[in-house]
Automatic annotation (TrEMBL):
The gene is ndhD1. This is NAD(P)H-quinone oxidoreductase chain 4. NDH-1 shuttles electrons from NAD(P)H, via FMN and iron-sulfur (Fe-S) centers, to quinones in the respiratory chain. The immediate electron acceptor for the enzyme in this species is believed to be plastoquinone. Couples the redox reaction to proton translocation (for every two electrons transferred, four hydrogen ions are translocated across the cytoplasmic membrane), and thus conserves the redox energy in a proton gradient. The lineage of its organism: Bacteria, Bacillati, Cyanobacteriota, Cyanophyceae, Oscillatoriophycideae. It is a multi-pass membrane protein. It is found in: Cellular thylakoid membrane; Endomembrane system; Membrane. Residues 131-415 form the NADH:quinone oxidoreductase/Mrp antiporter transmembrane domain.
């Protein structure tokens, strides 16, 4: 327990990346193995730390490490994890390691590419683990740089436009994080950047609302929330398969994590003001993005809008004021991280063979690539929330959690559930129609004659198989994941309910029969 496990997990891939320029390698074959081994070692360290030292019944911070960094500013290197952060740390290690394996064909500037991948590995884990709000802002910003460079160098024809739009949106949103963080730190009699100390401060409802709005803009860009989402389809439209996996699998989850950690966890009174708006924005995300995805003819953009639609369930779950809804929001983040990474990896595999992303130019490729056909089918079924897959459990928990919430009127709940159900209906329509155009039907003779449509290689089957194992495992036995964060989300939901007077009264009334039953129950002496 005295060993700094979290600090080691964060810094190991970053330090290992510094040695890449010293590796004698021209074609990238050595450096890719080096990066993969580093990723595997760090992922194994994450799993060992979770298995050995993480207590599933403890709702608070665990594995806390605090070291003085800049004492004059009261700035510390402070890291720790709870039930909200730990699943996302594991997801980060898992997805990033597979993304390194997915980058196997990269031959353009391989040293720089794998250097950025390993640097991003540590930066992403740091976002979920740091407990100092100014340090959070720094790692949030530093994590953006590798993504920008990967998009700008290894992207498609419009990579410069997509990379510039990405950095303008995300860095612009980060200014709101800095402004809100400094306001919280200097508010009151004490100056502190510690997140737990900031959560205990009394800001007053008016200031909380302004702080909440600032954070909502910043994290709404990353989630992404309509209308702050427009950078995502462009970024996905030009990214390579490894960048796709990191964008869909991890970066979007940073926005959801920060909304729960800071907006809901640190500003519960303002959350009561904004919760109905979050629900409405979630419904807009689901329906608007599903309709837009239905109309897309570009394969990457279709899956990108599908991601935006699925993240709408996270917003509804966060604002549900129920244990089940909040649990569903966290489960949806992990589930979509796995499913989104698998779909975008398959987009990359398909493009490598067909050299086109337009569905009109495809058709019947499943006849030549039977393994790719099978992988596409299973992953698309997972995305449309087929029972037995993780997406079904997550969306069902959000639906039931919100439908049974006593924080909203019956009319509002019925309208929201019915509108969100429209998105659920649209999802299988556009995904199954995509499969039909991509894999079924008559072959495009020009495509077959000019492209070598080889089937999936073992590396690609391994990547998809690795992602499908937790997707199906969580779908069949959700407790595999929910037990990791249940204690934390239950405690968080209870705190949120304490900020709503009507919910406090209902909880007190509900607790009275239980208390009377305990008092009237015969004791062991009787």
């Amino acid at each position: 327990m005295d060993f700094p496990w979290l600090t080691t997990i964060i810094l190991f891939p970053i330090v290992a990346a510094l040695f890449i320029p010293l590796i004698p390698d021209k074609d990238g074959k050595t450096v890719r193995w080096y990066a993969l081994i580093v990723g595997l070692i760090d992922f194994c360290a994450i799993v060992y730390t979770f298995y050995r030292y993480y207590d599933l019944t403890e709702p608070g911070m665990q594995l806390v490490e605090t070291y003085a960094w800049i004492p004059q500013l009261n700035l510390n290197w402070s890291v720790g994890v709870d039930g909200l952060a730990m699943p996302l740390v594991i997801l980060t290690g898992f997805i990033t390691t597979l993304a390194i394996l997915a980058a196997w064909p990269v031959t353009l500037k391989p040293k720089l590419f794998y250097f950025l991948m390993l640097a991003m590995y540590g930066g992403q884990i740091a976002v979920f683990a740091v407990q100092d709000i100014l340090l959070f802002f720094l790692v949030w910003e530093l994590e953006l740089i590798p993504v920008y460079i990967i998009l700008a160098i290894w992207g498609g024809k419009k990579r410069q436009y997509a990379a510039t739009k990405f950095i303008l949106y995300t860095a612009g949103g980060s200014l709101f994080i800095l402004a809100a963080a400094l306001t919280m730190a200097f508010h009151g009699d004490t100056v502190t950047f510690d997140m737990q100390a900031l959560a205990a401060k009394d800001y007053g409802v008016a200031l909380e609302v302004w702080l909440y709005a600032a954070f909502l803009i910043a994290y709404g860009v990353k989630l992404p929330i309509f209308p702050l989402h427009t950078w995502l389809p462009d970024a996905h439209g030009e990214a390579t398969a490894p960048a796709h996996m990191l964008l869909a699998g991890i970066l979007l989850k940073m926005g959801g994590y920060a909304l729960i950690r800071m907006n809901a966890g640190m500003l519960p009174d303002a959350h009561a003001v904004f919760a109905p708006a979050l629900v409405i924005l979630g419904v807009v995300n689901i329906i608007y993005a599903a309709l837009t995805s239905f109309a897309q003819r570009n394969l990457k953009r279709k899956i990108a809008y599908s991601s935006i639609s699925h993240m709408g369930f996270v917003l509804i779950g966060i604002a549900s004021y129920t244990d089940l809804g909040m649990s569903g929001a966290v489960l949806q983040m992990v589930s979509h991280g796995l499913i989104g990474a698998s779909l975008f990896f398959l987009v990359g595999c398909t493009y490598d063979r067909t050299h086109t992303l337009m569905l009109d130019e495809m058709g019947g490729v499943g006849q030549k690539m039977k393994k790719v056909f099978a992988m596409w089918t299973v992953c698309a079924l997972a995305s449309l929330a087929l029972p037995g897959m993780s997406g079904f459990v997550a969306e069902l928990m959000v639906f039931v959690g919100f439908a049974t919430s006593d924080a909203y009127s019956l009319t509002f709940r019925v309208v929201v559930v019915c509108l969100a159900a429209v998105g659920v209906i649209l999802t299988p329509i556009y995904l199954l129609s995509m499969l039909r155009e991509l894999l079924y039907g008559p072959e495009n003779k020009e495509l077959v004659e000019h492209e070598v449509l080889v089937d999936a290689e073992p590396r690609e089957v391994f990547v998809i198989g690795s992602l499908l194992i937790p997707i199906i495992g969580i779908g069949l036995y959700p407790k595999l994941l929910t037990q990791v964060y249940d204690a934390t989300t239950v405690q968080l939901t209870a705190r949120l309910r304490e900020s709503v007077p009507s919910l406090i009264r209902r909880d007190q009334v509900a607790a009275q029969p239980t208390a009377m039953a305990v008092q009237s129950a015969p004791s062991l002496k009787d």
